[in-house]
Amino acid sequence: MEREELVRDHTVYACVMGSRAFGLATEGSDTDLRGVYLAPTPLFWRFDKPPTHIEGPADEQFSWELERFCALALRANPNILECLHSPLVTHLTDTGRDLLSLRDAFLSQEAHETFARYALSQRRKLEADVRTHGAPRWKHAMHLLRLLTSCRDLLRTGELTIDVGDQREALLAVKRGEVPWPEVDRWMARLAAETDEAARRTPLPASPDRARVEDFLVRARRASARQADAHH
Question: 203 near 59, Cβ under 8 Å?
Fold first, then answer.
């Protein structure tokens, strides 16, 4: 089965991500498309397994096979968790609805470590830019502030919200380079400290509900196998 066919015919959930989903879109913003496809179960019975992810066919489009997506979400991968909470859903099947109903099963205290680790690596890149070029890449600085805010609020409330809401103008000012780097750096440090504080009293469970997610995955694979049998 062709890669394009997997995305075209077997996508269970698709959404728009990036600036448009975060409420940070401006005139020139790309439309980042993300999706999850359920590879037909019989494809796994062969030596050559279906791909775990597919780039394209459209520009700025990326999709994951359902199992790979769930595995990454259970590890609290920030990009994947945010994908599950996009306010801009473009395609949804019954299996996709079941996936979205599991949003809370993926959320746990592990998000603190994964988001913080990702944020730290991004911050080091920004600091290297400042040392080398005298200024960071402002767009990256804006998105790091957004991510830190999102993580802090997740740990405080137990819910992941990715739209920046009333922070839009302040963040876009950072993107335009209108806020001096030392001020942005202090903002990041404050958010990191608030995130650590929120982690100490978070309502999130210690670990994700792996059994619930696995049960869903097995059901989806079984249904796909039955569908394949019905076609033969």
Answer: no
Please state the rounded mean pLDDT for residues 86-113.
Answer: 97
The Cβ of residue 97 has, within 10 Å, a number of other Cβ atoms equal to: 11
Q: Where do the structural domains in the chain lie, given as residue ranges? A: 3-106+209-231, 110-200
Q: Distance of alpha carbon 102 from its chain centroid, rounded?
A: 14
CATH number of 3-106+209-231: 3.30.460
Answer yes or no: are the C-beta atoms of 160 and 130 closer than 8 Å: no
β-bridge pairing 32-37 and 61-65: parallel
pTM above 0.90, yes or no: yes
Asked if residue 196 has pLDDT above 90, the reply is yes
Give me the sheet containing 89-92, strands edge to edge. 53-55, 61-65, 32-37, 11-17, 89-92
Residue spans of alpha helices (H) in the chain:
3-10, 19-22, 66-74, 78-84, 94-100, 103-106, 110-133, 138-157, 168-175, 181-200, 210-231
What is the pairing mode between strands 53-55 and 11-17?
unpaired
Q: Name the residue among 72, 70, 69, 49 with its Cα closest to residue 3.
A: 49
Kindly report the length of the chain.
Answer: 232
